[in-house]
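User: Predict the full complex structure for these chains.
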Amino acid sequence: MAIQTKQMMTVADYLEWEERQEFKHEYIDGEIIEMTGGTWKHSRIMINLTLAIGRQLENSNCVLLNSEMRVRVSDTRYVYPDLSAVCGDESLEDEKELTLLNPVFVVEVISPSSETRDRIEKREYYYGVPSIEAYLIVDPDRLHAELYTRAEDGWRLRLFTSADDIIPLTMLNCDLPLAQIYRGLDV
Amino acid sequence: MAIQTKQMMTVADYLEWEERQEFKHEYIDGEIIEMTGGTADHSIIKVNILLCLGNRVNRQDFTIYNGDMRVQVAESRYIYPDLSVARDQAVYEDARELSLLNPIFVVEVTSPSSETRDRGDKLDFYSDLPSIEAYLIVDQERLRAELYTRAEDGWRLRLFTSADDVIPLTMLNCDLPLAQVYLDISFEEA
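Assistant: Here is the predicted structure of the two-chain assembly.
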């Protein structure tokens, strides 16, 4: 979830300024985008996803990161995915380890305010990061997940809309049942 | 473009009622969605695509429809794509040919009010209609087209954002240059 404001900043100023902020802000080509809180469903789904994927990564070389982890998607673009995962050695931009450079998997749980941005802008940003093999979009208001996996000339998209669907996260070597994402929610 | 209203109707009632309406309405699981007019750019882009396809697609093999052609995408869902194409024998639901059942290609030109729906709900609907081999979303506000082609277990997505890009519509045996799609459209520099 995000509120766009019209401040313009250099990358260096943003990185320095953001550290001192109470709230998270994304940075897109000079523009600062403030991250807001989320709804009950959004929060529940985040926890469900974290538990379902996290458990399966316990004995692997992959780790899951929550939305505190900033990801650099280009020289002038920094975003906070709702979830990201890294396999093997993590690559961080700075000594303070504030920015991840090499996620293999990112997740966005959409909200009415972020839906278009998640499907258009973020889908493009994430495609521009070669380490990202898959991008998962989850709709908290209906049984609906979109898995984008990297192909040579664009994303390959699979839709999951049925309660017995299982999302194959091959890059993490795990299977994510749709029912677990929406556990406890009436959608 | 659409405005959602909260009337609920049966399929039979909708089909009978809509024929008598002045404006088009989509029907999604009991709900009626009124179709509104569009901007000049929206209209020009649609005509550009129509002309381009009309000139390039073999009309012996394919039929091209504008936004007046209703498509039944599921038993309880009827929508009006901005443009549809059928191959060989078009199949209609009714003798009066009011609802097309087997388009192979559909196009939506996004507007701010439809953008979320075109990429969300409509992608789901078109996924459920197996005859549809490709779905093209054209952005009204910037040089940008998304081509979804059906793959074995989902969609393949290709993005076109450069004025020299050519969209390969292999299912129609034709190429659609992005420059043609946006002919006469100028974008304000962001």
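The mean pLDDT of chain B is 91.
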